[in-house]
Amino acid sequence: MTALAAHDLEVQLEASQLDSYPLRRRSHDFYARGLIGPVFYFVAYLLLLSVSDFFARASWWVALPAVLFAGLGWARYQHRVPAAGATKEQFEKWGRRHWVLVHANSFAWGVVPAVVGWLEGKPDSAVLVVSLSTMAFCTAASQAFAMHPGQARLSMLALIIPGVAVFMAPGLDLRPTGVTLFFYSFYLLANLRRSSQEYTRQVDTEVELMRSRTEVTVLSLTDPLTGVANRRHYEVAWDRAAAAAQRQRQPLALLMLDLDHFKKVNDEYGHLGGDACLRHFSDVLRAHFRRDSDFIARLGGEEFVVVLPDTTQARAVELSEQLRLAFAASPCPIDGAVVALTVSIGVAAVDEGMGDPTVTFRHADAACYAAKEAGRNRVVAWTPTLEPRRS
Q: Which of 314, 315, 338, 340 is nearest to 327 (CA)?
């Protein structure tokens, strides 16, 4: 794609990305917010070992959970979010795989309080550490994973259910702790619902702000009457097209178009009739120049320009002649009447991009003026013999 086409599509691309923005935002938040979790699993497990005699009782076996937490944390860190240009299916596939890692982490910790409760059987420092840690991890999950409330609930249940089930078992003196964890989980589930709603509102607000910014950008670059680019957009696009033509050593043509006797249309049919003719001419231009790289703009009044990348001056003259004939054969309907219009076209080109874009514009303008002077309704290509347009 040429630089001109890329610039012309920038606003359209930004608008098209609005639909995928919530998915991309959720994916990046999901990844970033979850990175710290494995670190705290690892630290909490080391704290558990420091307040208990498990290492002395079970030797190196107790080191396996620490290795598991470190490994799952590294796997989550390495499982990066797809690039911004990835498809919806790629983001969703990534999300499913990342949730497998998160749930595995959650269940791995959920087993820890269950084992500690079974081994200890009564409230002590080890049970206190795993209970408080489980409550903290569930609280963090309800906040960090608010963008996916359904999966967040599964993660929270994996964290809390194994421990609660063991704490409530007959023969253990941990039922009050189990009941506390059980009811605390209901509070967290309710809090998750609120967090999810707040997150959704925040993303929706961001999308609306982005949409408003895109609409403002479109309005600032578009002629409101005809829907083609305005002069401001043309100036930026022409500079980029000229730079690309020079870099790629390709020809670049510029057409200057001026509707003939347009003042008579305004005098006879009013400005509304004149506006209808301008819109009609814009439609003919769009139908005639349909390459992605072709660029159409209205400079003001009845003056238009067309930028044709990778087009020689001879080829631009052929296309202009076809346009002239097509427009002359396509009268504009105005309030039941049919108004025949013609156009004068000036053509200039930069050979293999070697030239000054400003000079090329003056050449096309001079050629258009020459077409007017020669009787209108014709195409004139610039030559060194043409006089500059008089002010």
A: 340
